[in-house]
Write the structure tokens for this entry.
Amino acid sequence: MAYQLTNGILTVDIAEPGEGYRETRFEWNGLITGITLLDGGHSFCTSENLTEGQGGGMGLCHEFGIKEAIGYQDTKPGEQFPKLGVGLLTRTDEGPYFFYKDYPVQPFKVEIEQGSPEEITFRTLPEECGGYAALLEKRISIDGQSLSIEYSLHNTGQKKLSTEEYCHNFLNINGYSIGPDYRLEFPVTLQPEVDEAETSEELMFDAGRVIWEKVPEHEFYFRTGGYDGTRKPYLWELFHLPSGAGVREVSRLEVSYAAVWGRSYVVSPEIFYRIEAEPGQCIKWTRTYEFFSENTK
């Protein structure tokens, strides 16, 4: 069973936890698979991989701990460690944690409550593992042209939770390829960093703008430093010139760093948020997106 939010302006499609996506990277609960701005019928979501059977994320996928899985270093092969929003994963070898690896998983139990056509809450229940435990509540709601994702992370364990959260926004607009027809902007001057030079060879930068001179032939990626997003009008904005439709993230967050990943059919602006929660502490934050067209913005 899938879920849908609608208010006559936006429709938001949300997957049933564990249906369609059962890998151990992205959060299972509240996975947003489709967003449509009804005025003009503009769509915004796509998949990480278009090849049948290749797997990967889709739409708005959240992940906790892409670099440092909680408790992994203290876990021996065959023992479990927690992946927030997913479940208890089993370490399989002596190697480092790798976010792309699909680990054996015991999914967390989740409660779902849809209070109205415009909001739904996913409550991931705590399960102790190596002194770590958390109650994670995720409320998704729509208001006019805005979509909000409100998080509440309550550390119910005995150890500090130290991690980071981001949303891997798998986006295109109306199915159009990424290229010169798109404008991706950040509210700060970009200082691109890459691990492999070829991942940015097809990109150009003009202050806070990312420019494609043609549809990219290869996967692209870069990251840039953090900034105080609480003082900015938006954290990023993606606009498709021919259709006149766009989306911007207007979350008020302290950005630890940002990144952009993509291929010819998808671009993913990613904003990373650092979380440090002591035992008994509850951390709350909200991600908000605005969807617009030239007729509505």
Notes: The chain has no helices and 22 strands. The first strand starts at residue 3 and ends at 6. Residues 155 and 280 are 5 Å apart (CA to CA).
